[in-house]
Amino acid sequence: MKKIILVFCVLYGFLFSVNLFADDLYGWGANHSGQLGDGTTSDRHTPVKIGNSNEWTEIAAGWYHTISIKTDGSLWAWGLNDYGQLGDGTKTDKLVPTKIGNSNDWRQISADAGHTLGIKTDGSLWAWWRNEYGQIGDNTTTNRHTPVQIGTETNWAYVACGRSHTLAINNDGTLWAWGNNGSGKLGDGTTMDRYSPVKIGSNNDWSKVECGSVHTIAIKTDGSLWAWGSNLYGQLGDGTNTDKKIIPTQIGSGTNWASVAAGHFHTIAIKTDGSLWAWGSNFYGSLGDGTNTYKNIPTQIGSGTNWASVDAGEFHTIVIKTDGSLWAWGGNLFGQLGDGTNTDKNTPTQIGSGTNWTSVSAGASHTIGLKGESVSVPNNNNIIQNSTRISLNVRPNPASDIIEIEFTTPDCQASNLSIYSLDGKLISNLTDKLQALKSNLITHDISNFTSGEYTIILTCENERAMRKVVVVR
Length: 473
Fold this sequence. Notes:
Layout: E1 3-5, E2 10-11, E3 23-29, E4 44-49, E5 56-61, E6 65-70, E7 75-79, E8 94-99, E9 106-111, E10 115-120, E11 125-129, E12 144-149, E13 156-161, E14 165-170, E15 175-179, E16 194-199, E17 206-211, E18 215-220, E19 225-230, E20 244-250, E21 257-262, E22 266-271, E23 276-280, E24 295-300, E25 307-312, E26 316-321, E27 326-330, E28 345-350, E29 357-362, E30 366-372, E31 391-395, E32 402-408, E33 414-421, E34 426-429, H1 431-436, E35 441-445, E36 452-460, E37 463-471
Antiparallel strand pairs: 1-29, 2-37, 3-4, 3-30, 5-6, 6-7, 7-8, 9-10, 10-11, 11-12, 13-14, 14-15, 15-16, 17-18, 18-19, 19-20, 21-22, 22-23, 23-24, 25-26, 26-27, 27-28, 29-30, 31-32, 32-35, 33-34, 33-36, 36-37
């Protein structure tokens, strides 16, 4: 499944003597194949810290395995490896994080039930694991036990994998798909499997895409929501249960969708006002509306407007609020919600009392998360911790050329956006872009930045949100 990430501190005044966030790795839920990475095969019902490293930056929980990237750009994997899904050239399960290859230039990863994909900092696309439907994209149906490059292009921006299909966005905003095309989930107007990337339509305004097991959800740069593929449980959200849509179909007329996650047969999304919406299957309460009734249109979950990021597993949902607190609901047979029980929940339930969760990824029945350690700042009585007014995110991270800066400011007006070196030197002032923007997403070229850490600061009235980005060369 995809990972979600939110890292921020909010304050009055500028701060530069900052050690931003060192991210610790946590896992909970099913662990029969070592997918938590704690060296055992024992299930965990509450978040357990994995190892001693605090250098994790990207996480992706697959069905029964986990993939992660460290701040140095190295790739790590653990869990089930019966088909070579870890990418280490073996079929031996790993119970602890194991480095994959010698490269230190990985920037984004995605994992699901049938294949694993990654993008390097040069924009090249790589894939491995099962390939019976062509989901790897190398124009074969041969399984791969180590990462293989897909084509020669170096302009891939984001990749997402479902159970046996793949969607990716190019730097030019075009959408591409390959793999299993049952129910038309590739969106190319057919139900034919594709063994290499195929361009979907002619539009170049795609911003986000996520894959469920048999459906696909995407957001365009104008904030509109689109869906295609299987719809037996209403997971497309078009008000029907029509079996399939074989081309991208707009869901409603709204242009205020900020982020989306696709589970097995359900969909969860956040609007730009911070409200949370869900639809599709409601097995074990995975929608979070207090029922187990399926929904075929987006249905608001509660009345809160402080939801920041969301991910969906097979039958469970994990969300981070703007204050950094962690919430979960849905199936909990293996403790994947992390609340210390095996009891399903059909409404959002806070997991622990921590407010420093920065990223979370949901697998089939396990969950992987990152916690940020405390920010080191000068003494300042005006510092506000855990404001609910601003969220700030940057991807990919680490990055080398193009970054996307995404933010939400539900009840204040963003007035300044700048990038600084850690010693306080202004590197880029993006305020003009900010003021001209009609969405909550800014793209910025960092190809002239030197390697190192930088601080992105967003000002909203008298508060500021701050995010670290690592540039690698």
